[in-house]
Amino acid sequence: MRGQHNAQNVAAAIAACHTIGLPFDEIANTLASFPGLKHRMQPVGRLDDLLFINDSKATNAEATAPALKSYEDIFWILGGLPKDGGITSLSPYFERVRKRF
Questions:
Q1: Can you name the residues that pair with 97 across neighbouring β-strands?
Q2: Which SUPFAM superfamilies does this one have (predicted)?
Q3: Is residue 39 a contact partner of residue 55, using CB atoms and an 8 Å limit?
Q4: In 3-state terms, what secondary structure has residue 45?
Q5: What is the C-alpha separation between 72 and 58, in angstroms, rounded?
Q6: Comparing C-alpha atoms, which of 84, 5, 72 is closest to residue 37?
Q7: How far apart are CA 55 and CA 64, in angstroms?
């Protein structure tokens, strides 16, 4: 799974599993087969070198920032109703967006 936020989640899961006594090989095998959660930076397709990611759980700027931070070059498709605070806090990531409409 891509992203610093996911690495932090994995580290927390490993620590919790280790604390309750699960062996590291069992933890590692489970993590290796974990596909991630639907709608959270979920790879859904590929066309040539273009990877399509569904991050529809990111419904506000705070939830979207970690995903945008995880990619250098993106086509960002977004929609929905504006949330309080808007998306101006995401402006540091706008330079990663290849094209905006």
A1: 74
A2: MurD-like peptide ligases, catalytic domain (SSF53623), MurD-like peptide ligases, peptide-binding domain (SSF53244)
A3: yes
A4: strand
A5: 18
A6: 5
A7: 8
Burial readout 65-101 (b: 16 or more C-beta within 10 A, e: otherwise) = bbbbbbbeebebeeeeeeeeeeeeebeebeeeeeeee
Are 40 and 66 in contact, with CB atoms under 8 Å apart? no
Summarised one tens digit per residue, pLDDT across range 5-57 is 889 999 999 999 999 999 999 999 999 998 888 888 888 899 998 888 898 88
Model pTM above 0.85: no
Token readout for 69 is 């931070």
- What whole-number distance in Å separates Cα of residue 66 and Cα of residue 32? 22
Q: What would the two tokens of residue 66 be?
A: 């970690």
Average pLDDT for 62-82 = 85
What tokens appear for 73 in the block?
């070059």
Give 2's contacts (C-beta < 8 A, 6+ positions apart). 41, 70, 71
What's the sign of the alpha-carbon dihedral 14, 18, 23, 26? negative
